[in-house]
Amino acid sequence: MDVTLILESLNDAQRKAVTAPAQPMLVIAGAGSGKTRVLVHRAAWLIDVEGVSPQSLLAVTFTNKAAAEMRGRIESLLGMPVNHLWIGTFHGLAHRLLRRHWREAGLPPNFQIIDSDDQLRLIKRLLKNLEIDDSRWVPREIQYFINAQKDEGLRPKHLDDDGDPNRRQMIAFYKAYEEICERAGLVDFAELLLRAHELWRDNAELLAHYQRRFSHLLIDEFQDTNAIQYAWLRLLAGKTVVPFAVGDDDQSIYRWRGARVEHIHQFQKDFPGTVVVKLEQNYRSTATILKAANALIANNNARIGKNLWTDGVDGEPIKVYAAYNERDEADFIVGRLRDWIDQGNLRADAAVLYRSNAQSRVLEEGLMNAGIPYRVYGGLRFFERAEIKDALAYLRLVSNRDDDASFERIINRPTRGIGARTVESMRAYARANNCSLWRAASAVANDELNARAANAVLSFLNLIEKMARDAADLDLSQQIDLAIHASDLINFFRKDKGEKGETRVENLLELVSAGKSFKPSLADEMSLVDEFLSHAALESGEGQADAWEDCVQLMTMHSAKGLEFPLVFMSGMEDGLFPHQRSIADPSGLEEERRLCYVGITRTMQTLYVTYAEQRRLHGMDKLSHPSRFIAEIPGEFVEEIRPRVQVSRRLFSPGPRAASKATEAELGIRLGQRVRHDKFGNGVILNCEGQGAHARVEVNFETAGTKWLVLSYANLDLM
Fold first, then answer.
1. Which of 456, 642, 671, 684 pairs with 251 at a CA distance of 20 to 30 A?
2. How far is residue 255's CA from residue 703's CA, in Å, rounded to a whole number?
C-alpha cells in the first residue's frame, strides 16, 4: 500500500502518533478528536510500513462493538483480512487465553462462564445452603464485595478483616463462593481477568512466550482501566512489548466501576521515555461548544491538560433555561424538540441527557403527551423498571387481593423465606379449588406447611392486611410511600452498595413524586390508586419507539459517552442533582462529576440547551434548587439566557413585600408559579397577580408568546 494513503486523512498530531518509532506512547485524545482513527491507522502503519506481522499485534478495548469496528476499519484500510490480529475486549482476550491454557490456569477444560445474574443466583444458593438469612446478608452486597476484591487482584487469603466482624463474614462468603466455583468449574467475569493475570504472573515461561509473540500493544479507552486490567497490561508489556495507549483523563467517568484515571499518570512512570501526543483538533462540535468545555474542565486539578479547538464555525451560544419546576423544564424541552422536528430534522438527531435515571419520568410523560416517539438509550422506561414494578405490585395487591401476578411477584421480595416449593403448593391448591393464590396461601399455611414456612406466609398476608388498614386515610403519594417503606423495598435496595442499588432507591422515591403530581381524570369511575395503577400499566406498554425507529434519544450522562448529536439538552443542572449531592463535599468525586459534565457538553455537534429548575419534586420531595456550579464555570460570552432567573419560588416561600398578594391568590383561585394554558398563547407560568373581582389581572410568561398581562375574567385560562 502507498504510505500516503495511510497518512492522507490525518492531521499533524494524528500523523505524529501514527508514525512514531517503537517506543511507549500515550495519546491524549480529546473528545471528537479521532482516537479510533489513530488506533486503526497505527495498526495499519505497523503492518504495512514497519513490516510488523498482524499476529504480533494485540489490541484491547472495552466493548465488542468497538473491537469489531476497529478490526473492520483496519481490514478496509489495508485491503486485506487480518485474521491473526488479536483484537477484543479485556474479558474476550482473557477468555481466549484461558481456553488455550486451561491447565496452567488451574481450570477444567470445559469450564463455564457465568454472567452477573448467574453469579447472583449462585450467591443466593450459597446463603441458602449455609442457612443464612439473606435479609441480613444481602446477596448483591456480597456480589459487589467479591467482584471489587477480584478487580483489585485479591483472593480471600490476601484479605485481612481488620477486626471487623462484618468484613470477616464477607471474606468467609468470598472463600465459600470460590470453593463452589472451583468444584463446578465456573468462572465469572471478574474471575476471567484475575485468572488471566495470575496465568502470566505465575508462569514465567508462558509470559515470556507471549512477550516474544506480541511486539506491540494497542490500548483503547485507557482512562477506563481498573487495577487488574492495568496490572495485566503491565505484565505483558514488560520491557520488550511496546505499549501504545489512547485515552483522555478528562473523560474518565467510571470511578464507581473501578476505573482509575491515575493510570494515565502512572503510565509515564511505569514506562520511562514515554512520548505524549495530544489530539486537540475536534471534528464534532462548534468552536463555542469547545471553548465552553475547555473553560469548564480547566477547574479540575492534576490534569495532563489540553485545549480542544476546531477550524469549523463558531456556532450559536449555549442556551440556558431557568425553569420554574420540573414540569416547566419538561414542557420547554418538548417544545424545542417539536420545533426541531417541524423544521424537518430527524428525531434521532436529538438527545436529552440527565444525571439520574429518576429524572426520565417527567420527560417521558411530556414526550408521550406530545406524541413524540422516544427511546431510553441503554435502559428501561420508568414504569418498566423492576423496582417500580415491585412497588406497584404491593399497591395492586393491597387494592385487589386476588391479583395473582402481583402476589407471585412480591411474596418473596424482599426475601422472607418463602421458597419455590411453598409457592407451588399454593398454585396447586388454587388450581384444585378454583381460587386465587391469596386465598390458597391462607389455606395451605394452616393445613400443609411446616411451622417455619407457615409463619413466613402468614406474616406476608398480615403485612398486606396492615398496609391496607394503614393506607385507608392516606392520599396517593402517602400510599406509595407506605408501600415502599412498609414492604422494606427501600432498605432492601439500599443495602446494595453499588450504583445500581442507589439508582433503584432514587427511582422508588421518584415514584412518590409521580403520585404527588398525578392528576386523575376518571375519579368518579375508579379509586385514585386504581387509576394511577392503570396509568402506570398503560405507560409501561406504550410510547417508547423501537430501536430502529426515528425517535428522540433519552439517556443518562454516563450512557452518552462515545455518542454525538446535532441537538443536545442537558437537563436537571442543579447543585445536589448535578453535581450529585454525594460528590459535592468530596474533591475527587466533584472532579469526576465535572468530567461527566464535560462529556455531556462535548456530545453536542451544533446546538446545546442547558436547563435547570428553581423548584424540583424529585425522589418524593419538593426542593428549592440552585443552578449547578458547572453553569457558572462556563464564561458568560458563550451563554445565552433564554429566561432570566425570576425567583418565583422565593416569592412563594419567603415573607416580604409579596406576602400581601396571598389573599389575592386565594380569592382568585390561582397561585404564583402555577402553570396555565391559553387558547391563543399556549402554555405559561403565572408570575404576578393584582386587583380584585372583575378587575383582577395576572402576569403570565408564555413559552412562545413571552410575558403578557391578562384580565382574569376574560382570559379563560386552564389551570394545569
1. 642
2. 40
In sequence order, which residues have a C-beta less than 8 Å from that of residue 632 and are 6 or more positions away?
none
- Can you tell me the distance from the alpha carbon of 332 to that of 2, in angstroms, rounded to the nearest whole number? 54
CB 191 within 8 A of CB 151: no
- The residues annotated as belonging to the active site are 35-36, 220-221, 251, 603
Alpha carbon distance 382, 118 (integer Å): 25
- Out of 288-292, 450-454, 475-479, the most confident range is 288-292
Sheet holding 675-678, edge to edge: 706-711, 697-702, 682-690, 675-678, 718-719
Do 552 and 606 share a domain, yes or no?
A: yes
Q: With pLDDT > 90 as the criterion, what percentage of the chain qualifies? A: 50
Residue 657 banded pLDDT, cuts 50, 70, 90: very low
Sheet holding 565-570, edge to edge: 374-376, 552-556, 350-354, 565-570, 604-613, 318-323, 639-643
Reference 293, options 559, 597, 587, 583; nearest CA is 597
pLDDT tens, position by position, 102-159: 999 999 887 888 878 778 888 988 898 888 877 778 888 999 999 999 999 999 999 9
CA dist 430 and 89 (Å) reads 50
First to last CA, the chain: 67
Same domain, 571 and 479: no
List beta partners, residue 216.
57, 242
Q: How many CA atoms lie within 13 A of 393 on its CB side?
A: 20
Most confidently modeled range among 7-11, 498-502, 588-592: 588-592
Round to whole Å and give the CA distance between 137 and 127: 8
Task: Find the CATH number of the domain harbouring 652.
Answer: 2.40.10.170
How far is the C-alpha of 157 from the C-alpha of 161, rounded, in Å? 11
Do 495 and 141 form a contact (C-beta atoms < 8 A)? yes
Taking the CB of residue 564, how many other CB atoms lie within 10 A of it?
Answer: 17
Banded model confidence at residue 554, pLDDT cuts 50, 70, 90: very high
Query: Residue 590: which residues within 8 A CB-CB, separation 6 or more?
Result: 579, 583, 584
Q: Which of 535, 553, 569 is the last residue of a domain?
A: 535
For residue 321, give every residue at least 6 positions away whose Cβ sits within 8 Å of its Cβ, in sequence order, or none: 329, 332, 609, 610, 611, 612, 642, 643
- Which residues form the domain of 696? 648-719
Kindly report, residue by residue over 675-705, the tens digit of the pLDDT. Answer: 888 888 888 888 777 776 666 788 888 877 7
Say how many CA atoms lie within 13 Å of 630 toward its Cβ.
35
The CA dihedral of 191, 197, 199, 204, to the nearest 10 degrees, is: -170
Clarify whether residues 171 and 42 are in a common domain. no
- Whether residues 407 and 515 share a domain: the answer is yes
Residue 571 and residue 562 in contact, taking contact as beta carbons nearer than 8 Å: no
> How far is Cα of residue 514 from the mean position of the Cα atoms in its chain?
20
